[in-house]
Structures are given as C-alpha cells and as structure tokens.
Amino acid sequence: MSKRTGDSRHNKKGELLTAILTLCYLDPTLSPVALSRLISKSRRNAEAKTQILKPRRKSSVNLDALGQVVYQWQRSPRYLDNEGKPLALPARGRTRSIEAIFRETGHSDYFAAGIKHLRDVGRIRRLGNRCYEPCAEVSIVPKLSPELVELLAHTMNRLVATVLHNTSLKDKNALRLVERVTWVPDLPQREVSSFKRFAREQGGALIDTMNDWLERRRGTKIRRRIGDSTRLTAGLHVFAFVDRNR
C-alpha cells in the first residue's frame, strides 16, 4: 500500500482530530502547556481502552447497504402484500427474494455476508417456512465493531463541523443546520426508564420521517463517482444521554 493510499484511508480520523483541536485552541482558558498535558493523558487513556475493546470481525458490516435493502423491502410495492405489509421472502431467488433486493440496490457482491449481517443486527428473522421477514426499523450492533467505531468518529466530527459551520456564518439570515439540545440536571432516578422509552419513541419517529425523505431523493442505484462534487453525505443523528452529576 502506498503512503498516499494509507493517508487517504485515515482522512476522516485526521478531520476529527483537527475538529477537536480547533475547539481546544478556541478555548482561551486552555494554555498550551495544559493542552499538551491533556493530549498526553487522553492518548494514554485511549490506548488503555483499546486494549480492553479490541473489536474483531471476520467481515465488515455495511450498515448503509443493509438499510437500503430493508427500506426497499418495506416500501417497494412488489415486496408488499395487499395490506401494505412486507412479504416473507426466501433468501435466494431471481425474483421476490432477499438476494433480488441486494441485486436491485446494487449490492449483489455483499449478499452472502449481508444476509448474515441482517440477522446479526436484528433487521430480519427467520420463519418456519425458511423465509424471512423484516422485524425492526433500525440496526442494533450488539458489540463494538470497526464499523461502529467509524460511525462514532464520523458522528463526533460532524457534530463539531455543524457547530463551527453555524457559528462561522456572517449573514444572520443564512440557513443554518439544525443543532439543538434539551436537558435537565436533576431528573429523578425513578424516571430514567420512562425517559429512555419516551426518547426512543420520539427519536424513532423523527428518524423514520427523515429516512423516508432522504431515501426518496437518493434513489436505489446511485453510483457515487470519485470526485463527483454533486453528491454530498447528508443525514440526522439523534441520541439520548443520561449522565451522573459530579
């Protein structure tokens, strides 16, 4: 592997580090000496955590491809019954099968591993007649994996980029990206379970609506070309948090 190829693979990590350091440099209370100590300590902590986590996966999980497959299954008329519910499908077959959906969405090469990954992340379940049906709107990755680490890095980078974008616009009437938060410092412990359920319901409804909007405009066979500046990554990330006060 050439040095240039290796560097390009890690561009997102570099962008994340740049974003974090930018926030640090913008903090007038953080001296260069204190920042150096903070970086050293963070590096040691990260190395220690990595030794504990060390994710292992035989093949990479393509969460975007899995989402496309399930979306096509749940929305395309040819995969719905007369009541609009997704049909139970066999794994293989030229038409009306999970294999066919992988082919239609441009992921034929991923089918063999993809159908296993659909089960692993809880998107499908097997029925008694050897067919499958979709059973969840979201993918649940059961353990820390390289794909989840990559998603986490992208999420952190995008959050920082959104804040910097919104605060750098000079025109007060310019359209800014949504970036909102709501929280209280004194939620009783007994309300945590209710909060989790309510947050899942509200967040799930928002994500479902946004997913439909994005997928309809994306199409099912988009081929991203290298250097194509007309196609951008766009999305919305929702998460809830519970943190003990210190």
Beta percentage is under 5%
Number of strands: 3
Number of DSSP helices? 8
Q: Could you say which overall geometry the principal axes of the C-alpha atoms support?
A: elongated
Structural class: mainly alpha
SSE string, helix = H, strand = E? HHHHEHHEEHH
Terminal CA distance reads 47 Å
Write down the oligomeric state.
Answer: single chain
The average pLDDT score comes to: 82
Low-confidence stretches: none
What Rg is obtained from the alpha carbons, in whole angstroms?
22 Å
What's the helical proportion of residues? 40-55%
* Most strands sheet: 3 strands, antiparallel
Question: Reading side by side through the largest sheet, how are the strands ordered?
Answer: 1-3-2
Protein described:
The protein has 246 residues and is mainly alpha-helical. Among the domains are: 63-134; 181-246, no CATH class. The chain has 8 helices and 3 strands. It has a 3-stranded antiparallel β-sheet with strand order 1-3-2. It is elongated, with a radius of gyration of 22 Å. The mean pLDDT is 82.
